[in-house]
Design goal:
This protein is an all-beta fold. It contains no helices and four strands.
């Protein structure tokens, strides 16, 4: 969600798929790295790779986003 909302435009999930590759355990430190694969018009595709503290891949996520009206932070009126 954070990756597709970085443009200060309200964006919602259109579709999401998560593949769980390995278990995570209590006390694990998980790291998620998101990348924008494609963005055009109001649509976007984002991949997120989740790994544990040993660098083992725990999960893969692919999400499709849709930009809707509005911003997260008010912007100054343009002149």
């Amino acid at each position: 969600a954070f990756a597709c909302n970085t443009y200060n435009q309200r964006t919602v999930a259109q579709m999401a798929q998560v593949t769980f590759l390995a278990p995570a355990f209590a006390g694990d430190t998980l790291t998620a790295i998101a990348s924008e694969v494609w963005k055009q018009g109001r649509g976007g595709i984002y991949d997120v790779h989740v790994s544990n503290q040993q660098g083992d891949m725990i999960a893969e996520f692919r999400g499709h986003s849709r930009t809707v009206k509005g911003t997260h932070v008010p912007t100054a009126p343009s002149e």
